[in-house]
Write a structure and sequence with these properties.
Helix 1 packs across helix 7 and helix 7 packs across helix 8. This protein has a 9-stranded mixed beta sheet with strand order 5-4-1-8-9-10-11-12-13, sandwiched between helices. Strand 8, helix 3 and strand 9 form a beta-alpha-beta unit. The chain has 8 helices and 13 strands. It is of the alpha/beta class and about 300 residues long.
Length: about 300
């Protein structure tokens, strides 16, 4: 069975609506995607870290209940698990406050036995954090060299502008390792001041030739050497947009596995094959936006 690996930050999300807590659950960009994929029956492994505290134990129990493999999650006793407070506005988009207390010794677990045909997901600020950059890069390079399909989601926000030059150099390395980049219009506006998918693609095509550019209600754009296409998205009533992009990533990965694509296939994917991948992404993302959950429901199906 082909496997999905992801490296990213694990947080405990506490979600507020109208100033009151509405929900609390395990979160983190990559974790959200892997939970959805595990619920769809895929074999998933999380590479991360959390504290040996009540929040950490609650998260670990949740991951195991959802059949997400935790053997590459490092538990530490010095420090606490990361907490994220997510405040939903009138459009149900979130603004965050993060509370983190990591130890000095981090991400020292062994490299997985990546195999050709596995899929590796990474992204967000965790992959460009200076204190763990060398460790993250080691995992990502090993995945790429082992024949995994590598999907990178930069998830880059303006709050990081003060160290932007350093972060940009790290992101360039990530783009070079990726087979598919899935990023939002906000990401590329912040990274390259690119205001549309064409400009975003011009900035990354020398590093990665497959771009999926998501632009909220304006739809999804795919650009590759063979395909250039816009996809409309359905109008839905959102409850929370937390996890929307994460689950678009999950949908792409689900589609790759369902169509049994491996790394070398990505050079020749045609329009109908991309249609299927994007449809999976839209369906996963739309489902998540209609609840306070960061992942698809256990009864979700395409």
């Amino acid at each position: 069975m082909r496997r999905v690996f992801g490296i990213g930050e694990i947080v405990y999300d506490i979600i507020f609506k109208d100033g009151q807590p509405a929900s609390a659950k395990a979160g983190g960009s990559v974790l959200n995607a892997l939970i959805s994929l595990a619920r769809m029956g895929h074999e998933c492994y999380m590479i991360s870290e959390l504290g040996d505290d009540l929040a950490g134990k609650t998260i670990l129990s949740f991951l195991k209940e959802n059949k997400l493999n935790t053997q590459y999650i490092q538990q530490y006793t010095k420090g606490q698990s990361a907490i994220a407070l997510a405040f939903l506005n009138e459009q149900n988009d979130a603004e965050y406050n993060f509370y983190k207390n990591y130890p000095e010794d981090r991400l020292n677990q062994a490299l997985p036995d990546f195999q050709e045909g596995d899929i590796f997901l990474f992204g967000s600020t965790y992959t460009i954090a200076p204190e763990i950059r060398s460790q993250v890069l080691k995992f990502a390079e090993h995945a790429a060299q082992s024949g995994c399909i590598v999907l990178y989601d930069p998830n880059f926000r303006k709050v990081h502008d003060q160290n932007k030059d350093m972060y940009l150099s790290y992101m360039q390395e990530n783009f070079n390792l990726a087979d598919i980049v899935r990023g939002s219009n906000e990401d590329f506006e912040n990274i390259h001041k690119a205001s549309n998918s064409e400009n975003a693609y011009l900035n990354i095509q020398d590093q990665c030739q497959n771009l999926v550019y998501t632009a909220n209600a304006h739809g999804v754009f795919v650009q590759t050497p063979l395909v250039k296409k816009h996809y409309a998205v359905p109008q839905i009533k959102t409850v929370s947009t937390i996890g929307a992009g994460d689950n678009f990533n999950a949908g792409i990965i689900h589609g790759l596995l369902q169509q049994n694509h491996i790394k070398k296939d990505l050079e020749t994917l045609n329009e109908s094959q991309w249609d299927y991948l994007i449809d999976c992404g839209i369906q996963f993302s739309s489902a998540v936006c209609q609840s306070y959950d960061n992942y698809v429901d256990t009864g979700f199906s395409l």
